[in-house]
Structure formats: structure tokens, C-alpha cells
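pasting for the record
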Amino acid sequence: MNDRPARLRESLALLRAGRFAAAAQAAEPLAVAGDVDAMLLAGLARGAIGEIEAAAALLAAVARARPGHAHPVAELPPFLRQAGREAEIEAHLRAALRHAPGDARLLPLLGEFLLREGRPAEVLTLLPGDGSLPALRGAALAALGRMQEAIAAFAAATEASPRDAAAWSNLGKALAAEAHFDGAIAALDRAAALAPADAQIGLNRAVALLKAGRLPAGWEAFEARLRLPGHTTPPAARRLPGPTAIAGRTVLLTHEEGFGDTLMLLRYAPLLARAGARVIAQVPRELARLAAAVEGVPAVVAPGATPAFDYHCPFMSLPRAFATTLATIPAALPYLHPPPEAIAAWSRALAGVPRPRVGLCWAGAPRRGVPGAAMVDRQRSLDPTLLAPLAGLPGISFVGLQMGEGPVPPGLRLHRVMHRVAYFADTAAIAMHLDLVVSVDTAVVHVAGGAGRPVWLLDRYDNCWRWLSGRDDSPWYPGLRIFRQHRAGAWEPVVARLVESLRDLW
């Protein structure tokens, strides 16, 4: 057709605008005539409408015509999300696989989707028995906690593709999970050499260094996070050079993604103030009241505000600016001080709850907008039914620190208070009236720990870098006690040790 370019442009514009039926209608005269570009547009539009089989047939035809390209069904999920049909992604992937069961491009797409959905066992059932797709096999095994098998699969991937940076990065992550740090860092160094611009590989390398306790090199490598797609963009201004020569200067500290990260690193604000700096903390409203009470923070502003300043520093870059080592972590507690009026209010609210009082938090937040965060949250959170043995502890009052209205540990008389909480200052004030806080690895640990309260951490096997490796204590929070999984996903022994320790305590 003479108007082919115009029709394709029209269909693409309609597709991007979310007018999917019109986009399909514009492309289909060309698609019927066998135009591959039009078939792609029509297939994506039909898929976004929810016509799964029609979309699969069109996209399969495009895939056959372009064997050297990624399978076009990979382009469909953003349009499904735009249309509010995200739940149909899996059906489209499986329909594409039915149309071309031998297409090697499709199994990784479906496998990666299932991994993101927390269904690694299903990935293993999809994989052929010939040892192909070792990287996907390794990812599924790692998600299932079968780390030694995962390491073997990732090693096979590096042997099959020795110049594949992702294969070396995956091997390094798996080795780090098993605390084989020399091998992990060597593999991640190899990955970084192959793909020096890959921010995720740089971040994986940083995490291994930090978890191994090699903090100065780890902080330097950790700057790679600032290059991740979607990461909070820091101000385009001078970065904090360090704690020297800042007397009389204004330093803006900026929140990144995690509440816990900012709560943990507010401890550096007093050090900046003692060096003569005027500190401005730019934090979300949930953190504002606590941040305003930190020594040396005379000003708190909301994200998006544009105060005048001389230097800026993202909170997670403060340890780098101070060249922090294990021996120089600023560990003086407390540095978080809930407002006196909040402490008084919660004293009255909890007056009827007998002591000893134990705060309990069993799950984090998935942060679905942050790549990989949902998978990490599944690993760090535990099903509240696993905490049922706590109900057998007489004389202890449990106070729920879990946000939301979801299920609670069965049989446990839980005093629920978080429906009245909107700010971390209130969470900290509640902690002041508790004898102990027990939590998985989420912001509650940092609120209570920073306020100087006793904290027991229930931690996953492949733990966060900040808790180091092989330790049941933390240099960040003196007095914190870690109950760590000895096998990935095995929470029952952790809960058993928790129950026994609570019996010993009271």
C-alpha cells in the first residue's frame, strides 16, 4: 500500500496512547498482506485488548520472520500493564510457547516471569533435561535455596559462555550467598571487566564486598546503584567530598528508596554537624518528624524541595564520604529520638498492656517499583502461621508492629496498634514502651535499633550486606541479636530458637 509508512506511524501512535482497538484496526490491512511490522503492531494491540490466541498467532508469525531478534511477545507486558491486564501476561507467554514450542527464546521469558512471581519450582519443570539454559536453571535453584546446585549451574553457564558478564555475575552472587567471598569477588570482578557500564553488576560486586566486611572498597563500588534505571536522581551539584573542609557549609542529605536505609544512616548527621556543617535532610513525610529530632539536623525538607546548599550526599553515600570501616562505624545509641508528646501518648495507649511487652513484625514491604525488591521481600518475610509457637509463651504481651490488615499468628493474642500509625516517629515512640522488638529485616529494626531499644532480628539465609556474614551481632546496633536461617527458606528452626530464647529471658 502506498500509505504504508503513514499507517504504521498511526498504529504505533494509537498503541502508545492506549487506543488498542484503533491501533489494531489501523495495522491490520497491512498485516493481512503479510507486512511484518504491521503484524507486530496488530499482535501487540490484540494482546493488550485481551485477545490472547489472536495475538499469539500474529506474534509467532513475526518471530518466525525475524529469527535473529528477541521474541516479540517480550514487548507485550508494558502494554498489558497500561491496559490494566497485567494478570494476562502469563497466558500470553504460554500461548506463544504453544505456537512455537521449540523456540529457544520463549522459555527464558516464561521462566523469568515465573521467578518474578515467586514460582521457581515451576521453572524447573519447564526446563529441558539436556542441561541447556543453565543460567535460568541456576536462578530457579537459587530462589529455592538450593545454593550448591545453583552454583554448579551458574558455573556451567560461564563455561558455555565465558564472555557472558551476566553469567559471571550470577555465579558471584551465588558464591557470596554461601560466604565464599574470594571466589564471589573474583567472579564479579570478571563480570565487571566484561561489562564495565552495567550498573547492576557493579552493585552486585559492591554487595559482595560489603557482606565480606571489606567496607572501603564496598562503599566505593556501591556508588553503582546511582546509575540503576529508575533510581532516585540526586541533585546535579557538588557531591560531599568528605567530613573535612565543610565548616560553615550547607550539606543536603537526600533519601533514596528504602526507609530503613535512611533511618540507619541518619546517624551520620551529627558527625557532619560536629564538623561545622549545616545539615538539611530531604526525606519523605513518614520520616520527617524523626529526622527533625536528630542531633545536628536543623532543617528537614520534603522530596522535590529545592533548598540552597553547598554540597549534597545521598544517605547511602555517607559511609563512603566518611571512609567507614568496621572499626569506625558510628555506633553511639540512641540517635533517633521520638517526640516527647508521642512518647506520652503511646504510654497512655499501652497502659493496659501488661509487661513484658514484645513488639512483633514478620514481613516487609515488596516495593514492586524497585527491581528485584519483591523477590527479596519474599525471602525476608515469613508466613505469620509459622509464629504460632509464640502463643505457647505465657506471661508475654505481644504488640503487633506489622502494617496492614493481613493475617496474624494463629492463637496469639496480639495487641494491634499500627492502624493508628502513619509516621515512623510513632513507631519509635511505641518501641520506647516495649521491652523487646522482634522483627524480620525491615525498617522496624532500624527504628527500634536507632532509638536504642533491644532488638532481635529474624534474618534470611542470604542476608542483606549490612548484617555481614556469620555473625549473630551487628556493629551498627550494639546489642542487636541475629537469629539467622541456617538453610535458605527454613524459618521453623529460627522460630524454635526464638521461642527458647524468650523462655530464657522471662
